[in-house]
Amino acid sequence: MNENFETINKLSPVISEGGLRTKNILKNSEKDKPLITIITAVLNNKKYLEECLLSLHKQRYDNYEHIIIDGGSNDGTLDIIKKYEDKVDYWCSSKDKGIYDAFNNGMKLARGEYIGFLNSDDTYENNALEFLIKYVKKYPEKDFIFGAVNKHWGTLYGYKPRKIYWSWGFYSSHSTGFFIKRKSAKKVGLYNLKYKYSSDYDYFFRMIVKKKLNGVGTNKNEVFGTFRRGGFSSKIKFYDHFTEEIKIRLDNGQNRILVLMIFIYKYIKNFSKI
Known about the structure:
Elements: E1 16-18, E2 36-42, H1 49-57, E3 64-70, H2 77-83, E4 90-93, H3 99-109, E5 114-117, E6 123-124, H4 128-138, E7 144-146, E8 148-151, E9 154-156, H5 163-166, E10 178-181, H6 182-188, H7 199-210, E11 215-217, E12 223-226, H8 238-251, H9 256-271
Parallel strand pairs: 2-3, 2-5, 3-4, 7-11, 8-12
Antiparallel strand pairs: 1-4, 5-10, 6-12, 7-10, 8-9
């Protein structure tokens, strides 16, 4: 079972922490300016972290809070975090159980009306949060928003709910473009840590299929950010992704025959390229 979103368990023993919250500086939503929480999980990524942080600092929309969960870096990552500590609302460094555990810890700490995830090797466009607010105001009834994201092969954009049933892998925007209402996230729960590689897919499956939450995707030209090839998801072998997604589909009650059909299709499609 995935842990309940409301369970504010004590985080793993913190090695170090800092940020505005440790100085009793808290941000809140303002009139027509909802607070947005951005969560960044990082472990030994001094190579790209600064670029990631600067892309957030350049946002034209300024009512956001940034939470950084570090998994116990020892390569100089913490030096970069401390360099920009006056722009970080809260950061901590402690041993965790991986990226999804870090996401969960960040979600428990979130105060914003919307929650987004910016991986430490990805970046936002300068107007990413402006685009988000545009859709928040246009579709206030929607639970989540998928913003367009640039990847190495092109732009990933749009949202088709039924695609999650038959498509394999990320059926919509990468996490860099994903934002969800905090109150809606509570309905879904946290990332399930029993899935090592594809807990984000399980999260989306529960969000769309089980909880039947409603979302919207941005237009192709409304790009939220860029997904850098070579991060956590890029290093996972096809077989590991594939077998775990089969388990996720079955665990979430998808028809076994449909899962088998999708498996055969994906297997033939993937290995025909070899």
